[in-house]
Amino acid sequence: MDDNYKFLNFAESLKLVRKNRLEDYFQTKDIDDIYTDLLPNNGIITKLNLPRTTILVGRKGTGKSTIFKKSQK
Fold first, then answer.
1. What is the greatest pairwise CA distance in the chain?
2. Mean pLDDT per 10-residue run, the chain (73 residues)?
3. Are 54 and 47 in contact (CB under 8 A)?
4. Alpha-carbon distance values, 15 to 41, 49, 59, 62 (Å)
5. Which helix (H) or strand (E) segment is 45 a member of?
6. Distance (Å, rounded) from C-alpha 73 to C-alpha 60?
7. pLDDT for the residue numbered 31
8. Using alpha carbons only, how large is the chain's radius of gyration in Å?
9. Confidence at residue 20, expressed as pLDDT on a 0 to 100 scale
10. What does the alpha-carbon distance between residue 22 and residue 48 come to, in Å, rounded to a whole number?
């Protein structure tokens, strides 16, 4: 199974999780326990923290808020 297919399956599974359950999870866990960067060497966080405007686009439940919470930490 190639990596793109694995990622698409992972993203699809996130749709099944209800938002209120994620909010409860965020309150009890540290962001470092939740966040996993999908690019080598924390590539997503590194790009997000560059000194320019960055826009994250994605469907509900794909991790946009988690990325921002990790970036803020």
1. 37
2. 77 64 62 80 86 85 83 81
3. yes
4. 27, 27, 9, 8
5. helix 43-48
6. 22
7. 78
8. 13
9. 52
10. 22
Supply 6's token pair.
């694995």
Q: How far are the Cα atoms of 12, 43, 49, 67 from residue 8, in angstroms, in the given order?
A: 6, 19, 25, 18
Distance of CA 27 to the CA centre of its chain: 16
Contact 73, 31 (CB under 8 A): yes
Stated pTM of the model: 0.54
Q: Under a CB-based contact definition with an 8 Å cutoff, are residues 59 and 15 in contact?
A: yes
Q: What is the pLDDT of residue 73?
A: 79
Q: Which residue has the tokens 């997000």?
A: 48
Length of the chain: 73
Between CA 19 and CA 26, with CA 21 as vertex, the angle to 5 degrees is 95
DSSP state of 40: G
